[in-house]
Design goal:
The protein is α+β, with helices and mostly antiparallel strands. It contains seven helices and six strands, in the order ααααβββαβββαα. The strands form two sheets. Strands 1, 4, 5 and 6 form a four-stranded antiparallel beta sheet that branches. The protein has a two-stranded antiparallel sheet with strand order 2-3.
Length: 179
């Protein structure tokens, strides 16, 4: 049986009843008893977008002074260890940091991501290698635009094949009619 349409679902207060304000004893229970007046003393700041992986300036200065580079490396995902990936990073020179080894850094493992360091000269060499790979890819694409796509059979070497084997691109203004 459903509720009668238009009928109030709450019981009306007894005649002559007065609503009472909460007493001091009630406000000191529950959440108020646990936190007390701490909320008034805290200078509030929105911390919902803080970077949990950022290092303090003291740590950056120490790393620069010792010619080291730091990076957070994935050790596990949802509790499953990524040993192959992590060992590859270790072979590339990344060594895990223990808490307290770097000034100002007390946490070195955050939910499966581990703080690691390696010498700066190895990082510079790795970045140069990555940049050279990216430049080689870009140069190959640029060559395909101008000279044609290389064919494995060697058929693209003929003059007639080279005329049609590359990307033609034109840029024209599009006229949009006014209404």
């Amino acid at each position: 049986m459903g509720w009668t349409k238009g009928k109030s679902r709450t019981k009306p207060p007894p005649a002559g009843a007065v609503k009472q304000a909460p007493t001091a004893e009630k406000t000191k229970t529950g959440i108020f008893a646990r936190v007390g007046n701490n909320w008034d003393e805290v200078e509030w700041k929105d911390r919902s977008f803080d970077n949990r992986f950022s290092l303090p300036e003291e740590a950056h200065a120490w790393l620069r002074q010792n010619k080291l580079d730091a990076q957070w490396n994935t050790e596990s995902v949802f509790g499953q260890r990524q040993d192959k990936h992590y060992n590859e990073l270790r072979r590339n020179g990344w060594e895990p940091v223990e808490p307290g080894e770097i000034p100002g850094v007390s946490t070195t493992d955050i939910e499966g991501v581990r703080l690691c360091v390696r010498p700066q000269h190895i990082t510079d060499k790795a970045r140069l290698t990555e940049q050279n790979k990216a430049q080689a890819e870009w140069d190959a694409r640029r060559q395909m635009l101008g000279e044609g796509v290389p064919l494995p059979s060697g058929a693209g070497r003929d003059v007639s094949a080279r005329r049609a084997n590359f990307i033609h691109s034109d840029y024209e203004r599009i006229v949009i009619p006014e209404k």
